[in-house]
Amino acid sequence: xxxxxxxxxxxxxxxxxxxxxxxxxxxxxxxxxxxxxxxxxxxxxxxxxxxxxxxxxxxxxxxxxxxxxxxxxxxxxxxxxxxxxxxxxxxxxxxxxxxxxxxxxxxxxxxxxxxxxxxxxxxxxxxxxxxxxxxxxxxxxxxxxxxxxxxxxxxxxxxxxxxxxxxxxxxxxxxxxxxxxxxxxxxxxxxxxxxxxxxxxxxxxxxxxxxxxxxxxxxxxxxxxxxxxxxxxxxxxxxxxxxxxxxxxxxxxxxxxxxxxxxxxxxxxxxxxxxxxxxxxxxxxxxx
Length: 288
Prior knowledge:
- This protein is of the alpha/beta class.
- The protein has two domains: 37-140, Ubiquitin-like (UB roll), CATH 3.10.20; 150-281, Cytidine Deaminase, domain 2.
- The protein is 25% helix and 32% strand.
- It has seven helices and 14 strands.
- A six-stranded mixed sheet has the order 9-8-10-11-12-13.
- Helix 1 (63-73) packs across helix 5 and helix 5 packs parallel to helix 6 (228-236).
- Residues 1-9 have low confidence and may be disordered.
């Protein structure tokens, strides 16, 4: 199986000019925008059968991780060993396309995609969601075990550690991030993207390709809100703690409580715990 995957930041930011209005005066200045381009994920069996599985708007870079993470989080594959090869499109007679990734599986036929109920189309703002995704998750996942406990002081430090690694965000101000920490609060990996779902797919794809799954003693931090789809993806990877800088959605909280996921929101010096508080060590008990 091919394990090569480009980690370049090709086109991750785009230079432009803009007009800055300040103090009633206009100033022409250079600026950098986060790049948003489509990525088409094609699935191919060992015998050559092909299907376009998804099109997502993403920030170029870590595209193979994005494809692998998406396939795993949505239940299309269950392990790294099912991927024989990943490559950018190199169809005969066509120039190489860096916005198309072919994922060749080792099986002779493509997996049954009927449980997913639709031909995927995703955007940078919205993941693949709906009841089909939840039912698929219930078939694949059991409620998480209690597992390890982590100090609340470690949790509080996570946003600072993440921000130190967000170089591209500092330049553009237009990216979401997903970060993976171990139970001691050590930062293991960060992925950024214009779409929060893509950032998490890239992170989980990295873990899949590095043979680190399941992430049963890890913490995921996302830079925005904790949505239902992000909770689904986190659970699929076996992550017991999901923390978000912003708010969780109601469906994310429901999902977290059903699967015993520790869900943390508004992580800004202090934080709220919506589910799975037994995994957190606090210095003094909080009143009900």
